[in-house]
Structure formats: C-alpha cells, structure tokens
Amino acid sequence: MPEDPIAQSEIAALTRRFEEVAERTDREFGIVKSDLTALRLQVGNLDQKVSNLEPKVNELAGEVRGLSKKIDRNQAQIVELLTQLVGRNPEAG
C-alpha cells in the first residue's frame, strides 16, 4: 500500500515546526545560561568589593566613635565653664 502524501506532508511540516521550536529553545537557553554566568561574575565582583570595604567601614566607625567622645568632652568643658561664669559680673573681668 502506498504512503499517503498528505500525511507525509503534515508529518514533514510538524517535524520542521518541532525542529524550529527546538532551535529557538536551545538559543534562548544559551542566552539565559550566558546571562546567568555574567550575573554570577558580577555577584562575585560585588562580594569582593563589599569585603574590601569592610576594613574601611570599621576604621571610619572607630573614627566616629573617637569624634563622639571628643565632642562629649568638649561639651562637658563648656558646661563647666558656663557654670563657673554664672552669677559673675561681666564687667568685673
């Protein structure tokens, strides 16, 4: 019995469509895989930059603590001096 030409034509068309979709899927998967690789590299670079910033942040925090202590001492001195001046005659010099 001879093969049905219409059925063969439909099978060929379906095969072509399947192959086209498979190629497109492979391309899209390749793009996603490439983007994921690039993203991993960027995350790695950011992680390294954050790690490099940690000592600088700690140093800055120490400087801020030192400045805060110095401000507290200066404020205490100002309060002490103002307390000593209370009730004095400014003209008495």
What do you see in this structure?
There is one protein chain. With 93 residues, the protein is an all-alpha fold. It starts with a helix and ends in an 8-residue tail after the last helix. The longest helix has 81 residues, at 5-85. It is built from one helix and no strands.
Number of strands: 0
Distance between the termini: 129 Å
Question: Could you tell me the strand content as a percent range?
Answer: under 5%
Element order: H for helix, E for strand:
H
Low-pLDDT stretches are none
Q: What is the molecular shape?
A: rod-shaped
Features:
single chain, 93 residues, mainly alpha, 1 helix
Which secondary structure elements does this structure contain, and how are they paired or packed?
Layout: H1 5-85
Could you give a short description of this structure?
This protein is mostly helical and 93 residues long.
